[in-house]
């Protein structure tokens, strides 16, 4: 697999990464053995960038990922995040950042976190103070690169003025285009984009299920694409995308990932799956080349993303 560069500080990662949220929370029951096999399969197929967060099980997800990657730690980059509370409040107070980052180092079983993100802005703590604490860990050699997630343009600029930001992590897919308004700022400052949910939380997987089939605690229960008034129309969009994918000998998930890769050379999608077979399918998207005509057809099928 080819590599891509995020930011101007030297962070080099595989062009498709692995998002580990689903190994701990969000998408129904998980099996650790299956998840570890999927993570190691991803690496075997060329993935070198793996993403987790404190939020993903409050240490459970980090420990699982650290265990899976321990034999190959020197061959991969690991990203994690801070900023939430167990009730999904926001907490980026300096003392809390230090507590979480120290816990993350222990949970992952590493001496250094390759990429540390603030997971979500905290309106009660100036971003300058947040990045100031993050910078302390860089200076101490415990963090290599800094990132932000779910941040707006002003926050990105202010953060970058304190210490170079290498990556912004935001949702981005054929169905979710909101981050496109931030691309000029990222280009100006030389910040890469890590795209989470690039398969639209599974809606573009080719196996989307009706909301009634999802577990009660499945995070997709709260996503408007699954609302009864939107679901059938979104399924119809996926049907048209699937026709295009089939014409190229690909799945709709591969088409979705190839679309993200085709937008800019400093965008890295991080699909996640607990299935080794699905991981292999996702990674094969790196070999799918979309023409200008293909991209135009996708724009025609889903001009405004998913219906929400």
Automatic annotation (TrEMBL):
It holds the Pfam family Aldo_ket_red. Residues 15-301 form the NADP-dependent oxidoreductase domain. Keywords: Oxidoreductase. This is Aldo/keto reductase. The lineage of its organism: Bacteria, Bacillati, Actinomycetota, Actinomycetes, Micromonosporales.
């Amino acid at each position: 697999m080819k590599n891509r560069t995020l930011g101007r500080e030297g962070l080099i990662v595989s062009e498709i990464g692995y998002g580990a949220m689903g190994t701990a929370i969000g998408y129904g029951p998980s099996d650790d053995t299956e998840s570890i096999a999927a993570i190691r399969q991803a690496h075997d197929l060329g993935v070198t960038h793996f993403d987790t967060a404190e939020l993903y099980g409050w240490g459970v997800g980090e420990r699982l990922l650290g265990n899976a990657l321990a034999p190959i730690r020197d061959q991969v980059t690991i990203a994690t995040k801070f900023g939430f509370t167990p009730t999904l409040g926001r907490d980026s107070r300096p003392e809390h950042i230090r507590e979480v980052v120290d816990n993350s180092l222990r949970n992952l079983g590493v001496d250094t976190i390759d990429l540390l993100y603030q997971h979500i802005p905290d309106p009660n703590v100036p971003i300058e103070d947040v990045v100031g604490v993050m910078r302390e860990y860089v200076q101490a050699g415990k963090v290599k690169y800094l990132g932000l997630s779910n941040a707006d343009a002003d926050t990105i600029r202010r953060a970058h003025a304190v210490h170079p930001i290498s990556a912004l992590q935001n949702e981005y897919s054929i169905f979710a285009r909101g981050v496109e308004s931030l691309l000029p700022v990222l280009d100006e400052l030389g910040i890469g984009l890590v795209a989470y949910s690039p398969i639209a939380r599974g809606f573009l997987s080719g196996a989307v299920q009706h909301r009634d089939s999802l577990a009660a605690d499945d995070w997709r229960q709260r996503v408007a694409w699954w609302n009864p008034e939107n679901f059938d129309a979104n399924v119809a969009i996926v049907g048209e995308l699937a026709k295009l994918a089939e014409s190229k000998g690909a799945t709709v998930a591969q088409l979705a990932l190839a679309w993200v890769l085709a937008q800019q050379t400093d965008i890295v999608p991080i699909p996640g799956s607990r299935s080794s077979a699905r991981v292999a399918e996702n990674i094969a998207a790196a070999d799918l080349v979309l023409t200008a005509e293909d991209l135009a057809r996708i724009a025609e099928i889903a001009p405004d993303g998913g219906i929400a």
